[in-house]
Design goal:
Helix content: over 70%
Oligomer: single chain
Distance between the termini: 46 Å
Structural class: mainly alpha
Number of strands: 0
Low-confidence stretches: none
Strand content: under 5%
Largest sheet: none
């Protein structure tokens, strides 16, 4: 893995670690003003649920879309829609080139992202909840 690739992963990694903390602390402060001492903890829980749902839907889209593009290329290569060398085959190869990273890397990597988000939320959540009392 190149240094440039690792460097480009710093910002998304920080975003995953920092956002639950910011949500919890910001809403805890707002909860103190509004009189709801558990607003920070409930907001962090809501953030975790919504980010999990979004990640699952995005992962399903990427995995299924990538698989569909891969299967489309196999269908064209089997002789349908003109077979190899046809314009449909050229389009299917392009689709497969886009679909493979979606299916093989982008979709599954969201699992790691959500595990990290959940871990940070579980660690910081009690601190936000106790600090809110």
């Amino acid at each position: 893995v190149s240094q440039a690739a690792i460097g480009k992963m710093v910002a998304p990694g920080l975003l995953v670690v920092v956002m639950p903390v910011l949500v919890g602390l910001a809403f805890r402060a707002l909860g103190r003003v509004e009189g709801d001492m558990m607003l920070g903890a409930t907001s962090m829980t809501s953030y975790l649920v919504c980010s999990s749902m979004t990640a699952m839907l995005t992962a399903f889209l990427l995995n299924n879309g990538g698989g569909a593009w891969d299967n489309a290329k196999k269908l064209v290569e089997s002789g349908q829609h003109g077979g190899k060398g046809s314009p449909a085959h050229k389009a299917a190869v392009t689709g497969d080139t886009v679909g493979d990273p979606c299916k093989d890397t982008a979709g599954p990597s969201l699992h790691v992202l959500m595990k990290l988000t959940a871990t940070v939320t579980m660690i910081v959540g009690p601190l936000v909840a106790v600090g809110g009392r």
